[in-house]
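Reviewers of the previous submission asked for a worked example of the structure-prediction workflow described in the proposal, so we include one complete record here. The input consisted solely of the amino acid sequence. No template or homolog information was supplied to the procedure at any stage.
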Amino acid sequence: MSDFDSIFVFIIAAFFVGIYIFNEARPKGSSLISSILKPIKRFFK
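From that input alone, the workflow returned the following structure tokens.
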């Protein structure tokens, strides 16, 4: 089973990277990252 661990990690990472690219590559952009960073930026003002 440990022979396939790197394959599983690669597939899971590729899935999340694909979701990130799909969300960020839209013509108007995504509000996901900005909505996450907004409270953090407000905290450090």
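The chain has one domain: 2-43. We consider this example representative of the routine output the project will generate in years two and three.
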